[in-house]
Design a protein that fits this description.
The protein is an alpha/beta fold. The protein contains eight helices and 25 strands. The longest helix has 21 residues, at 152-172. The radius of gyration is 22 Å and the shape is globular. It starts with a strand and ends with a helix. Bound molecules: flavin-adenine dinucleotide.
Length: 379
Amino acid sequence: MKTLILGAGYAGLAVATQLKPTPGLETLLVEQNSYHTFETRLHEAAAHNTRVTLPIIPLLKGTGVHFEQAQVESVNIDEKEVIMKDGRVLLYDTLVVGLGSVTNFYRIPGLAENASELKSIDDADEIFNFINRAYSSDYEGNRDIVVGGAGLTGVELVTELAQRAEQLSKARGLPTINIYLVEAGPRILPVLDDALRAKAQKTLEDYGIHIMVGHRLMQATTDSVTVQTADGQQKVLPAGKIIWTGGIQARDIVKGEKLEKGPGGRIAVDEFLRAKNYPEVFVIGDMSLAMNQEGKPVPTTAQHAGQQGRLTGKNIMRLARSEDLSPYEPTSLGEFVSLGGLMAVGWMKLPWNQKLAMTGGMAHVMKKASEWKWRSSIE
Ligand SMILES: Cc1cc2nc3c(=O)[nH]c(=O)nc-3n(C[C@H](O)[C@H](O)[C@H](O)COP(=O)(O)OP(=O)(O)OC[C@H]3O[C@@H](n4cnc5c(N)ncnc54)[C@H](O)[C@@H]3O)c2cc1C
């Protein structure tokens, strides 16, 4: 059974590391980078240049999976063909697609052209270089940063940047920069409950971050954004760096006549995470529109991508042994948001669907524990 796994993110790598050398199973993992990126820690790399990657090849030891660093151009699931950027065509019996998501700029004028994103190491490097440059003695431009989108990524990023700005400000004797967090919705971190959100909001205020909820980003230029309140009042915020973390959409790379797509271009899958109408194609992670037990879309998180990957890995082993597949039953073990340094807020799932809310150092430890757990599951 010739199996191709596309993408070595949380989803694809979890598949590969579940596999074992098995007669008749021939598996190739294709990924554009030679390393896996801990995407959930990119905000740390953006502020502090922290190393958040791991080489892939050593992780595949004992799996029987071959690796190829190459870029996928498109996937034609009607013809069962994966077309590579270099023109080659790869064929498969079973395909696993885990190519993740891209930033959604919602066609806001000037945004895609002028804003940085936070989806890759290159993005993180660009932000890191800006903040360092902004604190160099010969820097003459605007030093303020505007971050659009107050979800998990935006909030984690601004707190980390505020910390870095404070360090640089002290070390170089320059006044600190302004950091604006712009959000169209009425609140930051809509996924958290009110008490945890209030704690997070207070932490951001203590850092001096300007929180602008209820302000829709209307336009961006090279050095400013225009925001608008619900009653139509507009304001221009000059900025040295604009960063957009306000939305994602599934990578649009898979073509198929009978493919079904949902919100954000996510590909609808069945109970075994196979694209509807294409039983030989598993779609997992941010690209996949899987449903939970209540019939609601499973969130696009690393936690769910990893769960889906592990199940798919086990299902590929079952296919190789001609056994029945196991269905996907998503679980949310909790959610933690880091707020710079040793500060975090979040909740952990308890038995009988109870949630244990946590703030401060304990929440930080839980956040770190989820990262260690991921790392130990792939190493
Ligand atoms: C800053 C930040 C913080 C986050 N924090 C959290 C958090 O705290 N908790 C949480 O659960 N989630 C968090 N997320 C979301 C989480 O990172 C994603 O949901 C998760 O990465 C999705 O996994 P995936 O495997 O679908 O995609 P990815 O991890 O993005 O992996 C996709 C892989 O495909 C590769 N690829 C893409 N295109 C091609 C191509 N054409 N050819 C070859 N290879 C290709 C990429 O290089 C990548 O390795 C965060 C995201 C960001 C950006």
